[in-house]
Design a protein that fits this description.
Strand content: 15-25%
Structural class: alpha/beta
Number of helices: 14
Largest sheet: 8 strands, mixed
Order of helices and strands: HHEEEEHEHEHEHEEEHHHHHHHEEH
Helix content: 40-55%
Distance between the termini: 59 Å
């Protein structure tokens, strides 16, 4: 099938057509649930769209291929090893000219040296008006590609193909792009460099999630549980079917509905505050110590794991303050335990908590105010002291589910 036929069948059109559609809409977020999940978002200068399209690659559905006649894929090595053959066949069958640049997978990609290396390779590629740069992989590749495209010729729109459930629910759907920085002291500062520029189009084909390692599937589960801070109703759904959904790598129809629900919660929070000018953000739930311990851990832990550990500490601290009852706290921890999500780590020491509070205060340019669950009000924002955190961590170290 030729490219023009693919364009006619596509529900998205070319990148230029998507850009025009978003330019014509007012500020806000629209969620279309048929024929598949589509979100169209605009917030001031930011415009972006997110699409869940099951079976797109194997079914030769042309949403991705239709974005441009020539596509330059910047893919993480793991995603390309697992999906490269099927993506090559997809593009070839739909008549799209393509080429690929590979980068390391995971956090190793989020390095200025990697950004420079990709930029150097991309400089030798002739990017015409029909060319589209597409990031292929997990959340880290989304950061690298969006960061590079924010700088390229003063800003160039790009697309992402999310190949993990974590990137579909969190990393690839927002406006922020991060790269780590290696300080002169040798410390690696996670997400120190940041620009705000979303991908114009993010597509997730959930069929691709099935090759994701279990640790990273559970990492996505942590981010899905996190959305309970704004959507407590998701807890009952996860209690009833979360284990089966996780076993399906969040890729079958029932789990995709829950993944979409969590993604919508995330997108609504982002759309209302795309540049982080409001520092009190519910989606920071599970993040105020996570960034510190994520890179200190040996080996480095998946991002979602640090979120899970931080959520558990926060939930325990909220119980101690009386914001949630013992029963509610137990319910949340039992859910995390059932899904085999991390809730404690040996790094949860007084010294690390002191460092985490300093890191959070510095990075957010203000007090270490964090969201915690509140059984009556959904959530509230508070400052947690070191002693509270140490006590919560001790409780989690010895915690066992009540029979």
């Amino acid at each position: 099938m030729g490219h023009r036929d693919a364009e006619r069948r596509s529900g998205l059109g070319t990148l230029a057509e998507v850009r025009a559609k978003l330019a014509a809409m007012p500020d806000g977020l629209t969620w279309e649930k048929e024929p598949h999940h589509n979100w169209w978002a605009r917030a001031g200068r930011h415009r972006w769209s997110v699409h869940f399209i099951p079976g797109m690659v194997t079914g030769r559905s042309p949403e991705l291929a239709g974005l441009g006649r020539h596509q330059v894929l910047i893919a993480d090595e793991y995603a390309w090893q697992k999906q490269g053959g099927s993506l090559a066949a997809y593009y070839d069958d739909l008549g799209v000219r393509w080429q690929v640049i590979t980068v390391p997978a995971g956090e190793k990609a989020k390095d200025l040296a990697v950004v420079r290396s990709v930029a150097a390779e991309l400089a030798d590629v002739e990017l015409g008006p029909d060319s589209v740069v597409v990031g292929v992989g997990g959340s880290a590749i989304g950061d690298v590609v969006r960061m590079l495209m924010a700088l390229w010729d003063g800003g160039r729109d790009c697309a992402l193909l999310a190949t993990t459930p974590l990137s579909a629910v969190d990393g690839d759907v927002g406006t922020k792009n991060f790269v780590d920085l290696l300080a002169a002291s040798g410390d690696r500062l996670k997400n120190k460099l940041r620009v705000h520029r979303p991908a114009l189009v993010t597509i997730a084909d959930p069929d691709l999630f099935r090759t994701v390692p279990d640790a990273h599937v559970r990492s996505a589960s942590c981010e899905i549980v996190k959305t309970m801070i704004d959507d407590p109703g998701i807890i009952a759904t996860l209690e009833a079917s979360g284990l089966e959904m996780q076993a399906a790598c969040w890729s079958d129809a029932p789990s995709l509905a829950v993944l979409a629900r969590a993604t919508d919660t995330m997108l609504r929070a982002i759309q209302s505050n795309p540049d982080d000018k409001i520092t009190l953000r519910t989606m920071n739930f599970g993040h105020f110590i996570g960034k510190t311990i994520e890179l200190m851990a040996v080996p480095p832990m998946p991002h979602g794991w640090s979120v899970g550990i931080c959520m558990a500490v926060t939930i325990k601290a909220a119980e101690a303050r009386g914001y949630v009852s013992g029963e509610y706290c137990e319910r949340l921890l039992r859910l995390m335990h059932k899904l085999d999500l991390p809730m404690w780590h040996p790094l949860l020491t007084r010294d690390v908590f002191v460092r985490a509070i300093k890191d959070t205060t510095r990075s957010r340019k203000g007090p270490d105010t964090v969201p915690v669950p509140d059984e009556k009000e959904r959530h509230r924002f508070v400052s947690l002291g070191v002693d509270e955190l140490v006590d919560a961590a001790k409780c989690l170290r010895d915690w066992q589910p009540v029979a």
